[in-house]
Design a protein that fits this description.
Low-confidence stretches: 97-108
Strand content: 5-15%
Distance between the termini: 60 Å
Order of helices and strands: EEHHHHHEEHHHHHHEHEHEHEEE
Number of helices: 14
Helix content: 40-55%
Mean pLDDT: 81
Structural class: alpha/beta
Number of strands: 10
Largest sheet: 4 strands, parallel
Length: 389
C-alpha cells in the first residue's frame, strides 16, 4: 500500500499492491494525520525559537518580528504549495494562541483542540474507487472568545447571551468551567437598573414610532384592494399557485403582507424601507423574487401616479458589503430605497445606519420603515431551560 500524489488534479491516490502488507487503511490514515500533526507542532516550536532568536540579534533600527512573520518564514522554507499556506498558518498559530492559564484548567477539550472527521464517498459511475476526504476543524468560536478574554474584558450583548444552548450561543458551560469567577452574569437588580435607564432614554426621545400588526389575509380579496387594474391582479394571481394548498396559501399571505407594507411606504414619502424575512429573495420569476416585487412597485407607481424612483436591493451574504455600499450611497443622495434581507444575513449585529448631509452637517440616520416577518425557524425553544423554575 502506498500513496501516489497527483499534483495536477490536487489529490492523493492510495494504491494497494501487496495483499500481505500489514499496513491497513485505518493505520495509513492515522500515520498521515500523525505526520501532519508532527509537522504542525514542530513548525510552531521552530517559529517560536526563530522569532526569539531574530529579535534578540536584530539591529536596533530593524522592526521586531511578530510570531505570524516567523510562522510564514518557516512554512516558506519548506517550499510548500502556496494554496496550502493560509491553512497551515492558521493551524500553526492556533497551537500557541490559547492562554495557558485557561488551557491548563481542565484536560484537553474539543473546544481547545478542535477535531477531525473523515468522509467516505462511493459512486456507481466510479465504483472501483472510494473518495476519502478529511475535515480538520482546528478552531471554534469558544476558543476564539477565550483567547479574547485572556487579553481583556469581553461583554456579551445579545438576546441569547445568557442562554445555555450551543446552537444559538457560545457554550456557556465550557466558558464557566474555564473562567471560574471571571465569568460574570448581571444580577436581577442590575438588569432592573439597566431597564430603568433605557426607559428614561426612550421617554426623552421625541421620535414617533408607529407599529402595526398585519394578520392573515384572504389572498384574492386583498389583491383586489391592492390593485384596481385587473391586468395587474392577474400578473400576481398567476404566480400564487394553487391556493387550496397550505404552502401556496402561506406564500401568498407572506407576499401580500409585504406588498401592503410597500404600498404604505410609497405613499408615506419616506426614503427607506427594510424588509426582514426568514428567507432571501429569489432571482427567478417566482412569487417571492426580485422580479415580482419589481413588478409590484411599477404597478403601484402607475396606479397612484407616483413619479418617484425606487431601487430594490437584495441584501444577502453574497456581495453583502457591495450591496450595503450601494444602498448607503443612494440614501446619502436622498434617493428612495427598498431593502430586502433575512434574519440570518442581518441578524448578527449589522449596523444599517447611513449618513446624510443637511445644512453642511453630516448626520447619522436610521432606516425610515421596517417590515419584520414573524420568525419561524431561527428561534430557540427555551422551554427546556425553564422546567426547574
Amino acid at each position: 500500500m502506498y500513496i501516489d500524489l497527483n499534483v495536477e488534479e490536487g489529490y492523493n491516490r492510495i494504491i494497494f499492491e501487496n495483499k500481505n502488507d500489514n499496513l491497513t487503511l485505518s493505520r495509513l490514515i492515522k500515520n498521515i494525520t500523525g505526520g501532519i500533526s508532527y509537522f504542525i507542532r514542530g513548525s510552531y516550536l521552530l517559529s517560536i525559537h526563530y522569532c526569539e532568536y531574530y529579535n534578540k540579534n536584530k539591529k536596533p533600527a530593524d522592526d521586531l518580528m511578530q510570531i505570524e512573520d516567523a510562522v510564514l518564514s518557516v512554512i516558506h522554507a519548506f517550499n510548500i504549495n502556496e494554496r496550502y499556506i493560509p491553512y497551515l498558518e492558521k493551524v500553526i498559530l492556533g497551537k500557541g494562541r490559547l492562554n495557558q492559564s485557561y488551557a491548563s484548567t481542565f484536560a484537553a477539550d474539543v473546544y481547545d483542540t478542535g477535531f477531525k472527521y473523515y468522509k467516505f464517498s462511493d459512486s456507481l459511475n466510479n465504483n472501483f474507487s472510494t473518495l476519502i476526504t478529511m475535515y480538520d476543524i482546528n478552531d471554534t468560536p469558544e476558543s476564539f472568545l477565550l483567547n479574547l478574554v485572556s487579553k481583556g474584558h469581553v461583554i456579551g450583548l445579545s438576546a441569547t447571551s445568557t442562554m445555555d444552548t450551543v446552537t444559538g450561543n457560545f457554550d456557556l458551560t465550557y466558558l464557566r468551567s474555564k473562567l471560574g469567577e471571571n465569568f460574570y452574569k448581571p444580577t436581577e437588580e442590575e438588569k432592573e437598573r439597566l431597564d430603568s435607564e433605557i426607559n428614561k432614554i426612550i421617554a426623552s426621545n421625541k421620535a414617533k414610532i408607529d407599529v402595526e400588526f398585519i394578520k392573515s389575509l384572504d389572498p384574492e380579496t386583498t389583491l383586489k384592494e391592492l390593485f384596481i387594474t385587473e391586468d395587474y391582479q392577474n400578473v400576481i394571481i398567476n404566480r400564487f399557485g394553487d391556493l387550496s394548498k397550505n404552502t401556496e396559501n402561506f406564500n401568498a399571505n407572506r407576499f401580500l403582507k409585504i406588498a401592503l407594507s410597500i404600498k404604505a411606504f410609497m405613499a408615506s414619502g419616506l426614503s427607506s424601507l427594510l424588509i426582514l424575512t426568514n428567507r432571501n429573495l429569489g432571482k427567478d420569476n417566482s412569487l417571492f423574487s426580485e422580479q415580482t416585487f419589481g413588478n409590484l412597485v411599477d404597478f403601484i407607481k402607475e396606479e397612484n401616479n407616483n413619479g418617484n424612483e425606487y431601487t430594490i436591493i437584495n441584501l444577502t451574504t453574497k456581495k453583502f458589503e457591495e450591496n450595503k455600499k450601494l444602498y448607503l450611497d443612494k440614501l446619502s443622495k436622498k434617493e428612495r430605497v427598498i431593502i430586502f434581507s433575512s434574519y440570518p444575513t442581518t441578524g448578527a449585529g449589522q449596523n444599517l445606519q447611513y449618513e446624510i448631509e443637511e445644512d453642511g452637517i453630516i448626520k447619522q440616520e436610521d432606516i425610515s420603515c421596517l417590515y419584520i416577518e414573524k420568525p419561524t425557524n431561527i428561534l430557540i425553544n427555551t422551554s427546556l431551560f425553564n422546567r426547574n423554575n
